[in-house]
Amino acid sequence: MSFSGSLLIAETPPEHFLLTSRGASLIGDVPSLRQRRFKSARLIGEYEKPWIEAWKNQKKGRGISGRTWDSIIFWGSILLGFILGAVMCYLSYSKVSNFEYCLVFEDNFEKIDTDIWGYEIQRGGFGTGSFEWTTNDSRNTFVDAEGLHIIPTLTIDDTDITPAEILDGYTLNLTTDGTCTSSDSGFSCSIYSNKTSGDIINPVRSARLTTKGKKTIKYGKVEVVAKMPKGDWLWPAIWMMPENSVYGIWPASGEIDIAESRGNNGDDYAAVGGRDSLISAMHWGPVAAVDAFWRTDGKHNVRRTDYSDSFYTFGLEWSEKYIFTYINSRLLQVFFVSFAGSENMWNRGQFGQDIINNSALHDPWSQTGQPNTPFDQEFYLILDVAIGGTNGFFPDQIGNKPWGDKSYTAPREFWNASELWYPTWPNGTERGLTVKSVQMWSEGACGTPQR
């Protein structure tokens, strides 16, 4: 078979073909093949149009067409949606607590105000196994146009202690110096470096400022405008502790962490979060072994930046009915815990199921009858930068961590790796926590005694 133009031509002897400008045509006794003309399938003549009759009946008031019902249902649903949305927004707004507050203090850090702030000076790690020695040295805390700076520095840079003495043969006794503020005059106030035992002088100095004994709240608000530090194994924190340990030693009397971070690069420490990650939590439990912070914590990460690049507002709102932390505004909450209902913190933590050292736990809270105990007492504010630690905040085997939490010589392992982590600490104030302002309010009108 052969093709020409749009015609399909059977094989035929050559004498029966006539070539034309339109292709090949059969001649002789074979009729020419032509394309069939298009014929319309449109209806011709009169035919029924029932939709016209329905429209006429509608106009005469004999009924409502389906199309009209569709319009009624469609627009009615939209109107109902607006009404329901408005009702839900109103009910939600009406449930938002808007307490009256009284300003306890506001500090924009033109100086370090001793009527507000005090120093906690010791070298024992504050129960976390951190490696710093906290001081009131002006190298570690000072104020400039940016605000308050809490800066970690190497001990060998700011004292007459030599690198060799860090490791062996030096006695640091803060009690003898008259500077230690800890009630534990032993481990927290003194250390002797010894290469045989592995004990070393704290290789880094930093600072810890608190409002203990000066400014506290039981229910209210706190807002701290701050910028976090850069540098591996730096641990900045804005947090609160009870003025009096009414229900027992930590964590039985509670702890409120408004904002904590890690100075490590977020990409290098992505498994748990570096300085691109912000953590808030409540610590509580009858004993330290069952601290239930993991039931009442939260984390917020930022993208393409981190909390050391600019200032953020780190906030706390706390009442008898709830507690939550936020970043910049109440709309960005890090964690929220409601105390409403009959469940108290003992039952919330399911501590009745725990056995520690073959013994059941004692319930220190339920006798108050308050669902928010132990978070029903006066708390004070703390600002600090710790370094490292052995309590799990920096997990083992993540981010080339140079020490092990269970090691008896963790501080020495940390110091021996200084050539790895110290180059990550910027010069100047970027390695420290910078605080532009702090505000603290108590719940209720000024002059109204707290419950």
The helix count comes to 8
What's the CATH topology label of the largest domain?
Jelly Rolls
Number of strands: 27
| Main sheet attributes: strand count, strand direction, barrel closure | 8 strands, antiparallel
**Amount of helix:** 10-25%
Radius of gyration over alpha carbons? 38 Å
Q: How many separate structural domains? A: 3
CATH classification class of the largest domain: Mainly Beta
Mean pLDDT: 89
- Shape designation: elongated
Q: Could you list the spans in which at least 5 consecutive residues all have pLDDT below 50?
A: 1-12, 14-28
User: What is the level-2 CATH architecture name of the largest domain?
Assistant: Sandwich
**Oligomerization status of the protein chains:** single chain
- Measure the end-to-end span: 104 Å
Class from helix and strand fractions = alpha+beta
- Beta-sheet strand percentage? 25-35%
Protein name: Glycoside hydrolase family 16 protein
Keywords: Hydrolase, Membrane, Transmembrane, Transmembrane helix
Pfam family, one: Glyco_hydro_16
Domain GH16: 91-424
Report what the structure shows:
With 451 residues, the protein is of the alpha+beta class. The protein has eight helices and 27 strands. The protein has helices at residues 50-59, 66-95, 155-158, 163-167, 174-177, 345-348, 410-416, 418-421; strands spanning 2-4, 7-9, 17-20, 23-26, 101-107, 118-119, 132-134, 141-144, 147-150, 153-154, 171-173, 190-192, 204-206, 208-210, 216-217, 220-227, 234-242, 255-260, 277-283, 297-301, 312-318, 322-327, 329-338, 355-356, 359-360, 379-387, 433-443. The strands form seven sheets. Strands 5, 8, 9, 16, 21, 22, 23 and 27 form an eight-stranded antiparallel beta sheet that branches. Strands 6, 14, 15, 17, 18, 19, 20 and 26 form an eight-stranded antiparallel beta sheet that branches. It has a three-stranded mixed beta sheet with strand order 7-13-10. A hairpin with a 2-residue loop joins strand 24 and strand 25 (359-360).
